[in-house]
Design goal:
The chain is an alpha/beta fold. The protein has 2 domains: 35 residues; 211 residues, Vaccinia Virus protein VP39 (Rossmann fold, 3-Layer(aba) Sandwich). The protein has a 7-stranded mixed sheet. α8 packs parallel to α10.
Length: 248
Amino acid sequence: MNKKQTCIVRGDIGFTALVCVASMATLAGGARLFWGKDAAGFFKGWVRNPLQIGAPAPCSVFVAKEITKHVQRCVAERDLTDMTPLRVLEVGGGSGIFSGKLEDILQEVELPYTLDIIEIDAGLANTLQKRFVTNEHIKVHCLDAADWNPDYKYDFIVSSVPFTNLDTVTVERILTNYRSIVKPGGFISYVELMWFAPLKEMVLRGESKEKFVDKLNTIKHFREQFSVEKVDVWMNVTPAHIHHLQIS
């Protein structure tokens, strides 16, 4: 290979490397815009315990915007002379995509608030604790949502708990706890991946299918008592239903 050919090859390699780096940067930037800045922690948690995480990817910023909209509305309409603390519970903190959105909303006006975040995965909980360590209004708790028993009630509960991955007894315990710790008139908003339950019901057989259908009926019964709205968000992996309930 002569000197000219060598220069061409080196130039091609350099150009290819530049394209690869640029492509990776673009993908990383796109992922950050779609999933927020801490998506990597979610995937690490998924590798540790995929059934506990329950989703193939973090919820998108579009899901975060929809699931927190009643908190946003409440803050926007709040009487600035009312200094009663606004209390919000997030269950399933994950990568912090909802947590970050809630922090932004709650800090829009200078009103007292408490944001409790429950995350059962120790690694993800630790990451969230580091992220919000300077905000005295936000506390991260590493435990099962069914075991959370604060000495106050919430105006809003935002939940990404993967109900389809849990057994019926656990689902009942969590829903019963939600009902007991939310204020009368308070909202529970939760995400449900759109196609997981129908596909799982389709492939299950026998007793496993009966138990799964029983669990779905438990969730449906709870939802139908208090449902005010269901919104489909297509910009997510996979598309999701957002259920908004108001507890009477």
